[in-house]
Amino acid sequence: MSNIKNDLLLRVLSGEKTERVPVWMMRQAGRYLPDYIKLKEKYSFFERCQTPELATQITLQPIDQIGVDAAIIFSDILVIPQAMGLEVQMLEGKGPLLPDPIKTATDLNRLIIPNVDETLGYVFDALRLTKKELNGRVPLIGFAGAPWTILCYMVQGKGSKTFDEAKAFCYTQPELAHRLLQMITDTTIQYLKGQANAGADVIQVFDSWGGLLGPNDFENFSLQYIRQIITSLKETVPTIIFAKGAWHSLDHMAATGAQGLGIDWCITPQMARQIAGPNVTLQGNFDPAKLLSPIPVIIKEVHAMLDAFGGNHHIANLGHGILPNVPVDHARAFVDAVKEWKLNLNTA
Ligand code: CP3
Questions:
Q1: Is the Cβ–Cβ distance between 206 and 144 less than 8 Å?
Q2: Hey, which of 1, 55, 113, 344 would disulfide with 126, CB 3.0 to 4.6 Å?
Q3: 315 falls within a domain
Q4: pLDDT tens, 197-241?
């Protein structure tokens, strides 16, 4: 039994049928909310991440203002390369830059497997403070990047559509790539155990670039490391894997024991269910760009999505992060449309 008042998300992840479908939005903290944009003028990105009071404040904004059924801690997946000893800059309007990316064995030898309490204790502090401020209103989601997605940034040094240099690194120096992936995995396991210990009720692993790999390479360079992470958390906290574009491997992802699997909008809920099997909870999959449609269209499309998932073993979400230019009332319309859908059923 949890002492969380709105524990829909936790109950759905444990396989229960619930009175309505829970809803949250990837990247809901930050990006599009006016109060967040005001904070950006005063504090740098990593100041916002590293100051527990700021991270907590940002984490709570969508709970208070949008009414989502879960909070996700404000942080970033790139705190892991930082803790391992790589410099990470966040350039306004441009995204991340890692000026000294990993290309050779010598570069790899510069990296450490850090003591997470020393290097990432600020995330644990932020989780503890957020937990306190939430006061049991909704569950708190912790997260990390999947090792493959982290490798993409560590090797490419910046965002990319193809991550060609990261892939070339894996294909030409597989032994080095696996050494790096294992170091990231070992760090991430300690980090996520720390997050659970600090109060995270659910952990999501973001493999944003999993879909750049074919099925065999996805197993080899991504899923075998995600599996280690899920296995190590199994006794501690429920987990969700979001591997964007890697729908071909939903069955293998379900077999890791993760309670939830995120899907993007390029697969139908029916197809995803067919591949993933009957038991796992599916999360998704509204096209984030559709939140730019007029509100009546959003409502209609959200209801169609919920119909397709069928109302059980489902967490309503977007198929990737919310876009920075989404009007706040459109985000709210998305959440409200999910909440009222069950009402429609009840009165039918
Ligand atoms: O869900 C949340 O809002 C919690 C906070 C969160 C951030 N990043 C804050 C952030 C989460 C869950 C992330 C995850 C993340 N970070 C991912 C995986 C999810 C995804 O969208 O694919 C990735 C790939 C990153 C790396 C990253 N961080 C990029 C590519 C960028 C720049 C472009 C962008 O996405 O906005 C960031 C910066 C970042 N991380 C911002 C925020 C709110 C925007 C910068 C700012 O507000 O100053």
A1: yes
A2: 55
A3: no
A4: 999 999 999 999 999 999 999 999 999 999 999 999 999 999 999
pTM: 0.97
| Domain assignment of residue 180, given as a range | 8-283
295 assigned to some structural domain: no
- Residue 99's domain is classified under what CATH number? 3.20.20.210
Atom 9 in ligand 1: which residue has the minimum CA distance? 76
pLDDT digits (tens, 9 = 90+) for 100-151: 999 999 999 999 999 999 999 999 999 999 999 999 999 999 999 999 999 9
Task: Give dist(CA 269, CA 271) in Å, integer.
Answer: 6
- Measured by CA distance, the residue closest to atom 31 of ligand 1 is 95
**How many domains, in total, are found in the chain?**
1
Residue 52 lies in a domain: yes
3-state secondary structure of 239: strand
Beta strands in the chain (DSSP E): 71-72, 89-91, 95-97, 140-145, 202-207, 239-243, 260-262, 281-286, 314-318
Q: Quick check: CB of 74 below 6 Å from ligand 1?
A: yes
Identity of residue 242: F
Residue nearest to atom 44 of ligand 1 (CA): 31
Cα→Cα distances 314→249, 276, 311, 341, Å? 18, 13, 6, 13
The residue behind tokens 């059924």 is: 69
